């Protein structure tokens, strides 16, 4: 009834979106005795995330002739429902169809017109047996975008199958399938118009696919998280016959690539280079500093060595994200250097950054994530650093040799950061502003006082994980834990004495409380019975006495 009211109010309606409205076939949503007033003008119809799979419902309004965009994602469709739609309705104007997240198993009956340009079949339980090895040959000559990701396709002959019914495909997504084999050598000859190819986590086992290098139109190539081996230079060499290189994203992360990192400066449009977690070796060529369009450079987790100098960053004015972590690299950068970029993320764990804190970070005002752990750094953290870190969400400066106190600054973080400073020589009182962190890892330092941190006023959020083990904390634990009711994990393995404060019982979200290896006395406070989520309580190696409380269970 309300559907007819919409039609009367908006007789020329062109767009109707009912996504996630809890509609089922029991509502008889589409049953009517006469065509709806707006049906002939409807261009976009979205019925996703409803339950209208029953073949009992009737499509009684004549929208099919003008409809261009049809969304039936997560619609509880089965293969026979698809047959019902294709048999009774024709969609001559349809250019966009989303059937993702339906248990179709087969699309043999798919027939939605030859003008279709975008087809989404993500997570539809499709297999090679019910798709490739059949007589199914749809008329999709206009198709530009095809998404077959997250299905159960097991044969790389999928490329030939697709080429049988479309000749101008621009984007193909086959990620998260079970291809378990090789990328066909002739793919460059059968898909010459491809701009975006996504084979992420498709269980491919092959050498670097040189044939892909001959697709000169390719802008994005995603082959990450497979088992691809060989030398990257073979792929680069096969691109040499292209007049221009359109490639903007190259993702071969987490494979088995070997050899040296080749000169990539010929890819003048490259914006994103993901080669992390491979077996690349040798040095990083200075020519990488000529790739002025680079935004993301991720080379971590290889065996790349040698020096990184200012020349490696010479023209990288657009660089936003860099990861060189877990390579035997050393930075050799002058203290007067001003970077040409403004980074959002810098990951250089286990790289030899220098003796002192990198002064050039003073010019980075947008850092969201920073990891300079295990960088051979010592001395003090400059006073200018933390005030420039208001946007930080993840900070890891652990496993260095910083030895200063941390001043209690009037600092307000924009987020609740994860702060990891363990395994240094920080000393003195823990400043209260660190209480804004969601995770605070301070173990293996020389901190001696936590009162300001625990008893300070918390404005937003609160600490969830607090690790203060193996510091120089002594004396009694403060009895002001009511401020820290977000805590879930606490480790106080130190040299604390006195009784366990009763206010710890106010930590209703506590799951793990570790007080082992201290000099605590007295009995377990009864207030801990209110920590109903507590899974781990470790008070071993103390001087507690009394019987084990019955509430421990």
Mean residue pLDDT: 88
- What is the second-level CATH architecture of the domain at 1-125? Alpha-Beta Horseshoe
Oligomeric form of this entry?
Answer: single chain
Number of strands: 35
CATH topology of the domain at 1-125: Leucine-rich repeat, LRR (right-handed beta-alpha superhelix)
Outline the structure in words.
The protein is mainly β. The protein has a domain at 1-125: Alpha-Beta Horseshoe (Leucine-rich repeat, LRR (right-handed beta-alpha superhelix)). 7% of the residues lie in helices and 20% in strands. The protein is built from six helices and 35 strands. It has a 22-stranded parallel sheet, with no helix packed on it. A four-stranded parallel sheet has the order 29-31-33-35, with no helix packed on it. A three-stranded parallel sheet has the order 14-16-18, with no helix packed on it. Helix 2 links the parallel strand 3 (69-71) and strand 4 (96-98). The longest helix is centred in the N-terminal third of the chain and has 10 residues, at 79-88. The protein is globular and about 80 Å long.
